Amino acid sequence: MVKLRRTTRRIALSGTAILAAMTVSAGTGWAQEAPSGQPKGDGETTVDEVVVTGSSIRGVPPTGSNLISVTREDIEIIGPVSTPDLVATIPQLNSFNTAPQPALGGFGSFAPGMRGLPASATLPLMNGHRLVAAAANETNPDFPLIPGLALERVEVVADGASSIYGSDAVAGVVNFITRKRVSGLEISASYGAGDDYQAGSIGALIGRTWDSGSILAAYQYSENDNVAGGDRDYRLQDFRPYGGIDTRSTSCPAPNVLANTSFYSVLQGAPGFTGLNYCDNGAVADLFPRTRTHSLFLSGRQDLGAAATLWGEMLYSDRKDELRVAPPGQTVFLFNSNPFFQGPPGATNEYVLFRPDNLVGSDHFTNTDDRKVGNASIGVDFTLPRDLNLTVYGSYDWADNDAFIPQINATALAAAAAGPTTATALDPFGNGTSPAVRAAILDSATDVGIKQRVSLGAVKLDGPIAELPGGSLRFAVGGELRRETFEQRGFVGASAVPEDLDRDITSVYGELFIPIIGEGNALPMARSLSLSISGRYDDYSDFGSTSNPKIGLNWEPAEGVAVRASYGTSFRAPGLRQVGATVGAYYLSAAQAATYANDPTRGAAQVNTVYLLGGNRDLQPEEATTYSVGVDVNPVFLPDLRVSLTYYNIDYTEVIGTPAVPYVFTDPTFAPLVYRNPTPAQLSSLLALGTPVNLPAPLPAIGNVLDLRLNNFGVRKTDGLDFDINYRWPTGFGAVFADLAGNYVLNFDTQFSPGTPVSNSLRLGIPRWTARGTLGVNAGALSVVGFVNYRDGVRNNFTTPTGLQSYKADPYTTVDLRVIWALPDQGWTKGGTVALQINDLFDEDPPFFPASDGIGGAYNPIGRTVAVSLRKAF
Fold first, then answer.
1. pTM of the entire structure?
2. CA–CA distances in Å: residue 820 to residues 542, 836, 872
3. Which end of the chain has less Cβ packing within 10 Å, N or C?
4. pLDDT tens-place string over residues 131-145
């Protein structure tokens, strides 16, 4: 089978990382490293150099920071279909123990947040290089969809890292590192099934190495079914038995009416008008989308003599998501002049609340998002005198999105409701609506095409400066020029939404590694002591500049005990879409404002209101101050035990968002955003900022204007512990191994602005604990590994008939099982492995909560799946 050379130096391994290391060393079921001097066989992988994440100096690990590693061996054991599936096994990431899918209803990024913070605060990389945003609704970098056979390992720096990488590295960095030197052919295939669900993938990798270089190509195709809400019987919407309210919809395929509103005050359900019709609109909507993905990775290296190496890489992926959503509920006003009018006896007019299944011809709409994404880099590494290294490289990344969201044409619907003949009228009760009227009502959608581009040129010089008693004093300096563009074309309904956004970024950075104490001058209680100082300056053409330093310390007081600490600042530049997205101007009548934008200073006399939503060119970067302290223990007297514990603290300010309407009226921070009784000049200038969305013509008198465009308001403060404990027992038949890794949040406080009350997010949906336990046995050619995934129960508020109450959901715990058989190493089975993968072995229902479909916290809607996979090397 494929031979894998293990990384020999790691810091704070995750549960899966240590599992793989133990499995490889435990017995003959996993191929061992070839002894030095032996020839390399077909299909064997070699690693020229170990490069870690979090430092710009080659060969120097991230000083002071916690590094979590998921290795190639882990990937083969876990058997993920995609990179998002793989990182969902890391407890520090928000996607842990879920079935990852794009955010924002399918039109956002795959990148999950870390430790409860937003996804935009974690920077994804591929081989240390920035990636393009690949989402229709976001401009923060997205996770790469790398073919599984091409992925070497994933490294997570769970610490602020803007001093090295710049924007977005607030909570940490996730670096996807690919394989580089493979000789031979590898193939893989998998098929899995669950309750109303199927998924499969096929992949191949081919590589060739020679003395001066290598080339590699990998491809993967994968697809999966959708999971609809109606496929899962744990969903609820009527919470009256649990002290809540009935959240079922009254806009149903069988309509409800409010007749002669001056005489009747209750809804009545068609066709009998003796009761009320309820429906579960979530039953027809997807909990998980149907998806198909093609991904292709290419890389190559070639020595150009003894002092230079030319290298290049390219990842291309083509993904299509189809997400079913319920047709949006509609409300129309009918007179009895409409030929399809129905109502209680004596009714002459009515409001009709209905779900337009008869118009759509189905119980759902299908939203689609096609994303074609490429990330390409090429460069030259130069070996200079005095062991210096110079790298010059460039990158070009691109992403094209075609997003389509069907909608109802509200203007055509209202006109049809007033239609006096069967040829022109709407029939909300049946199928009487004419084809022409139906076509006009369905002639509306959000249909946009988005192109995002990132081009970068970079240079870096690193190497030793001098030899100190403690070791080699090393440095790195570098600079980057980067250009980002965002172009959008298309329509939201009848409104064109063109956007052309761009920015230029100039960056310089430096890092110094100082080995104060080492083998040459070790002292009692100081076997080693090293210091890292780094800093970066970034200048953005659209909002200005920012500087971010960091200091890290490693101290080894005794053999087998290492202490580390770090302190620094980080930032996140506002996304291009956040800066320049189209601003919409929306209208609320006084009656609507009483519900959605109630101004407490006006009492019962609410007013017509206009509010603005969208980008803001005055945005400034989000900022954070982070520090951490950790200890790693590998006792001399117990060499198979490893323990890691890290305390982290993050103070995240100027977080970009839209203020909640109640706080707009009560928090002095937001006072400048409220314009009461605007003058004609004020109203005109404010309306000029946005594109009219639903403004009536002529516009009635406006009492309030709310500027709800994105702005720097939020504050988030959190601290907690990361931990990892693992042990291995050698046995006569192989080995038994165990691990427990996870995250414990001590505090998580959130404010909408510095002037609003502090909210404890641990009481508003953030889990305190996440953990992954591992227990495995390696016996010859057979390995059996079990994983227990734990997400602590979340506390949140739910609505009752008289107000709000708090409810604590139970924890969510799932069990995964892997059984891996290395086929006989001879004949046609040579190099082959068969694996049985069972996720969510006991088909665990999500924890109950008396709101939100009856589900408390993030979970995996797919449930138990059983998959068989085959991998073979030639």
1. 0.90
2. 53, 6, 13
3. C
4. 999 988 888 899 999
Given this model, what pLDDT does residue 52 score? 66
In the chain, the N- to C-terminal Cα span, in Å, equals 8
Structural element, H or E, at residue 303: strand 290-303
* Torsion sign across C-alpha atoms 82, 84, 87, 91: negative
Characterize the bridge pairing of strands 122-126 and 172-178.
Answer: parallel
Task: Please name the residues in contact with 80: beta carbons below 8 A apart, sequence gap of 6 or more.
Answer: 86, 88, 89, 148
User: What's residue 377's pLDDT?
Assistant: 97
What are the residues whose beta carbons fall under 8 Å from the beta carbon of 722, sequence distance 6 or more? 12, 66, 68, 92, 158, 630, 644, 645, 646, 648, 742, 743
| Angle subtended at Cα 148 by Cα 142 and Cα 150, rounded to the nearest 5 degrees | 90
| DSSP secondary structure letters along 124-186 | EEETTEE-----SS--S-------GGGEEEEEEE-S--HHHH-TT-SSEEEEEEE---B-EEE
- Between strands 609-613 and 584-588, the pairing is antiparallel
Spatial separation of the C-alpha atoms in residues 648 and 736, rounded to whole Å: 32
HSE-CB for 766 with a 13 A CA cutoff:
27
Other CB atoms closer than 10 Å to residue 695's CB: what's the count? Answer: 17
* Residue 647 CB contacts under 8 Å (≥ 6 apart), including other chains: 628, 629, 630, 719, 720, 721
Other beta carbons within 10 angstroms of residue 48's beta carbon come to 10
Alpha helices of 470-569 — where are they, by DSSP H?
Answer: none
Q: What three-state secondary structure class fits 25?
A: helix
Q: Is residue 804 exposed (0-12), middle (13-18) or buried (19+ Cβ within 10 Å)?
A: exposed
Tokens of 351: 């409001």
Burial pattern 391-402, b for ≥16 Cβ within 10 A else e, equals: bebebebbbbbb
Question: Which two tokens mark 42?
Answer: 């077909």
Report the distance separating Cα 395 and Cα 256, nearest Å.
58
Identity of the amino acid at 218? A
Using alpha carbons only, how large is the chain's radius of gyration in Å? 30
Burial 96-111 (b: 16+ CB within 10 A, else e): bbbbbbbbeebbbbbb
Token pair of 864 as six digits: 């138990």
Residues 660-693, buried b or exposed e (16+ Cβ, 10 A)?
ebebbbebebbeebebeebeeeebeebbeebbee
At residue 2, does pLDDT exceed 70? no
Element (H, E) at 508: strand 499-517
**Angle at 797 (CA atoms; ends 794, 803), nearest 5 degrees:** 165
Per the DSSP assignment, residues forming a β-bridge with 691 are 584
- pLDDT score for 264: 52
Half-sphere CA count of 609, side-chain side, radius 13 A? 25
Q: What whole-number distance in Å separates Cα of residue 362 and Cα of residue 487?
A: 34
Q: What tokens appear for 541 in the block?
A: 């053409």
Residue 248 makes CB contacts below 8 A (sequence gap 6+) with 237, 238, 278, 279, 280
- Closest alpha carbon to 92 in 175, 19, 157: 157
Least confident of 38-52, 489-503, 539-553, 650-664: 38-52
pLDDT band of residue 38 (cuts 50, 70, 90) is very low
Q: Which residues pair with 299 in a beta bridge?
A: 216, 313
Tokens of 766: 């953030």
Q: In what order do the strands lie in the sheet with 268-269?
A: 268-269, 256-259, 349-354, 330-335
Could you give the CA distance from residue 863 to residue 444 in angstroms, rounded to a whole number? 36
- The greatest distance separating any two alpha carbons of the chain, rounded to the nearest whole angstrom, comes to 100
Closest CA to 706 of 603, 618, 599, 601: 599
Q: Residue 642: enclosing H or E segment and its boundaries?
A: strand 641-657
Residues 354-384 pLDDT 10s: 999 999 999 999 999 999 999 999 999 999 9
C-beta of residue 869 within 8 angstroms of C-beta of residue 190: yes
